[in-house]
Amino acid sequence: MLTGTCNCGAVQFAVTEPFVGATYCHCTRCQRRTGTGASANARVAASGFSVVRGADRLRSWAPADGAEKFFCGDCGSAMFSRSGSEWVGVRLGVLDGDPGIRPGARQYVAYAAVWESLPDDGLPRHDESARSS
């Protein structure tokens, strides 16, 4: 089991199944959500994810055309996203240990921040979603 915890400790979740993939996302939403050029995320089946503490502290934003984003209402830590009932996108930065996976691609690079160069790290680059390419 792997846990993830927000900055203030109010919210904690557990991941009990292996991650199925991980990417760096360069979309504008991730930039605005994190204040950085990209967000590192891993996907897990919804059956392998649960909130173990602080569900009442979670807040969310559900854009009309994207996954619902969950964050701690006390400290603002971005925690995870959920689209439907099949998968959960976990923010790698809130994990309490090694997720056992590394991002394998960069997605939405067509929207990459102009103030930060994409690294020459050899990862595949996708102008849009890595899953639809």
Structure, explained:
The chain is built from 1 helix and 10 strands, in the order E-E-E-H-E-E-E-E-E-E-E. By secondary structure, the protein is mostly beta strands. It has a domain at 2-20 and 41-102: Metal Binding Protein, Guanine Nucleotide Exchange Factor, Chain A (Beta Complex). The strands form 2 sheets. The chain has a 7-stranded mixed beta sheet with strand order 6-7-8-9-4-3-10. Strands 1-2-5 form a 3-stranded antiparallel beta sheet, with no helix packed on it. Strand 7 and strand 8 (78-83) form a beta hairpin.
Spans where pLDDT lies below 50 across 5 or more residues? none
Mean pLDDT: 95
| Tally of DSSP β-strands | 10
Structural class by sheet pairing and helices: mainly beta
Q: What is the level-2 CATH architecture name of the domain at 2-20 and 41-102?
A: Beta Complex
Distance between the termini: 31 Å
Overall 3D shape: globular
The helical percent reads: under 10%
Radius of gyration: 14 Å
The main β sheet shows up as: 7 strands, mixed
Give the spatial strand order of the biggest sheet. Answer: 6-7-8-9-4-3-10
